[in-house]
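Postdoc handover notes: sequence design on the structure in folder B. Input C-alpha cells:
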C-alpha cells in the first residue's frame, strides 16, 4: 500500500507518464536496504521508504503490481495524482481523493509479463 501511494508521488512529478500505479516487488538481502525515514520525525506518507544500497537487475524482481487499464480510463488514479501533495499537507478532501485510487486493487503480474505491460 505504501509503495502504491509512493507511486502517486512519482507520477505527480512526470506529467507525461500514464496514470497507472506500478510497484515492483523484489526479494533483497537486508544489507542492500536502508531505511530512509525516521518514523518519529517524518510525515506519515513517507513511512516505510527505503533505498537500495546497490543496483539490482529487474530480472531479480519477484513480481510487478500495476493498475488495470480501467483505473486510467476512470480517472481515479489521475485525480489521486493531482491531489497527493495536498493530501500530504493535511487536506482531508484531497486525502479522500487519494484514497479513491485504493478502490482499484493492483493486479499481480509475473516478471515474464513485464514486456507486455510496457507495450
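Designed sequence:
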Amino acid at each position: 500500500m505504501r509503495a502504491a501511494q509512493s507511486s502517486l508521488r512519482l507520477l505527480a512529478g512526470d506529467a507525461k507518464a500514464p496514470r497507472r500505479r506500478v510497484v515492483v516487488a523484489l526479494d533483497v538481502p537486508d544489507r542492500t536496504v536502508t531505511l530512509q525515514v525516521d518514523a518519529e520525525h517524518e510525515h506519515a506518507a513517507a513511512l516505510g521508504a527505503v533505498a537500495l544500497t546497490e543496483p539490482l537487475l529487474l530480472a531479480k524482481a519477484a513480481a510487478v503490481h500495476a493498475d488495470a487499464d480501467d483505473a486510467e480510463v476512470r480517472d481515479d488514479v489521475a485525480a489521486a495524482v493531482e491531489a497527493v501533495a495536498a493530501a500530504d499537507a493535511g487536506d482531508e478532501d484531497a486525502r479522500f481523493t487519494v484514497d479513491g485510487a485504493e478502490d482499484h486493487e493492483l493486479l499481480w503480474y509475473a516478471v515474464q509479463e513485464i514486456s507486455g505491460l510496457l507495450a
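Context for whoever picks this up: The two ends are 25 Å apart (CA to CA). Don't rerun without checking with the PI first.
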